TrEMBL record:
Keyword Metal-binding in annotation: no
Lineage of the species this protein comes from: Archaea, Methanobacteriati, Methanobacteriota, Stenosarchaea group, Halobacteria
GO CC terms of this entry: membrane
GO MF, one example: serine-type endopeptidase activity
Residue ranges of the region described as Disordered: 1-28
Compartment(s): Membrane
Organism of provenance: Natrialba magadii (strain ATCC 43099 / DSM 3394 / CCM 3739 / CIP 104546 / IAM 13178 / JCM 8861 / NBRC 102185 / NCIMB 2190 / MS3) (Natronobacterium magadii)
First-listed, main subcellular location of the protein, grouped into a coarse class: membrane
Alphabetized UniProt keyword annotations: Membrane, Transmembrane, Transmembrane helix
Name recorded for this polypeptide: Rhomboid family protein
Keyword Transmembrane helix listed: yes
């Protein structure tokens, strides 16, 4: 019978000061953590958007809509910005749980590239899906990226055939992930772009099976 293996997290890094090695503090480690950095960016972009409208949602240019590259930077702000605090908290929950697990075994650059890429592709897909059905909409929020992180964990879970593969997560991680996903959906505002969620999960599943974020 196959068994599941969970890799050990890497220890805190050591730095050299005056010829002597010193362990990195927890504060420094948190500052370097890509999940903490991502949550900070999400909060900053969201607050910037709210401030620009006096707390009445976000500017139109912050969201992705047809034509999707006008302006081009909306692809970035739409990945990190949110309509309100409830929207931000719902996605931050998923990012913190799923991203926290993945960041233990990935690099910051891979994490950030994955987060931004899946977010952009999810938003663009949602806009084109709506357009195909004759509906015009604007998409904003990190839900596509958040569900891509969740899909990555599910996709990388060991099966009986590949239980020895490193970088896999066990069933407990999946249960925690499903709970976080439920909270995210429950707290999502009306008009949530569930097409973006689906695309995010699909991208995450593929990346998870390939263990693309695994570096250690």
């Amino acid at each position: 019978m196959g068994h599941q293996t969970t890799p050990e997290p890497a220890p805190l890094a050591e730095t050299e000061t005056g010829g002597e090695k010193s362990e990195e503090t927890w504060g420094e480690a948190l500052g370097r953590n890509p999940v903490v950095q991502t949550l900070a960016i999400m909060m900053a972009v969201s607050i910037l958007g709210w401030s620009a409208t006096g707390g009445q949602g976000i500017p139109d240019d912050f969201a992705v809509a047809m034509p999707v590259f006008d302006p081009w930077w909306s692809l970035i702000t739409a990945t990190y910005g949110h309509l309100d605090t409830a929207h931000l908290i719902s996605n931050a929950t998923m990012v913190a749980v799923a991203g926290g697990l993945i960041s233990l075994y990935s690099s910051a650059i891979r994490f950030h590239l994955f987060f931004l890429t899946t977010g952009v592709l999810s938003s663009i897909s949602q806009v084109y899906i709506a357009d195909a059905f004759g509906t015009s909409l604007a998409v904003i929020g990190a839900s596509g990226s958040a569900f891509a992180l969740g899909g990555y964990i599910i996709g990388s879970v060991s099966t009986a055939g590949d239980s020895e593969k490193s970088g896999s997560f066990g069933p407990v991680a999946v249960l925690v992930l499903l709970a976080a996903g439920g909270v995210t959906i429950w707290m999502s505002p009306p008009g949530t772009a569930f097409g973006s969620h689906f695309v995010g999960v699909l991208l995450g599943l593929i990346a998870g099976r390939l263990h693309l974020l695994r570096t250690r």
